[in-house]
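Open question from group meeting: does this chain pack into something compact, or does most of it stay loose? Before anyone orders reagents, we agreed to write out a predicted structure and look at it together. Recording both the input and the output here so the notebook holds the full record.
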Amino acid sequence: MISDKMRDSLNRQIELEGYASFLYLSMAVWCDDAGLSGCAQFMHRQSAEERAHMLRIFHYMSEVGVRAIVPAIPKPPESFDSARSMFEQVFAHEQKVTKSIHELIGLANAENDFSTNHFLQWYVAEQREEEALMRSILDRIKLIGDGPMQLYYIDKEVEAINQAEAAAEAAGGAEA
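Structure tokens returned:
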């Protein structure tokens, strides 16, 4: 059994993951409206991934016999200044999630909650990958610059990332 403090902290993490899912869904809609189909597809994938992260915590909490709470998710913004600022917001949000995961691990360590610590290690690796991916996208956006074809090239770069992720998922699914 985990402590009440850990239960409450995991429930806050559920809300953070749920908000990320809705934020990325809102970004997908904005990208779609802007004609950025590659970016829209990428954000739909990210939204689904964040939902899966949220559900993973629900399942863990059920396994350890504590009640997970379905949170009220704050409404995310509906529009963004640019593709660049949108990805900067994604990167900032991923950093916030990483910080929260690290705080959960600190709590698990302080409480000698080895089960939760072990469970959270998956999130540590996942967040490292997420931050690296977003940093890579922002680096590409900076290289592309602010010229008239900026959005076209950004969308093509993100589309290439979509294809690589889809291929990796297909390869991983074939091995399972």
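Observations to bring back to the group:
The chain has one domain: 4-175.
DSSP finds five helices and no strands in the chain.
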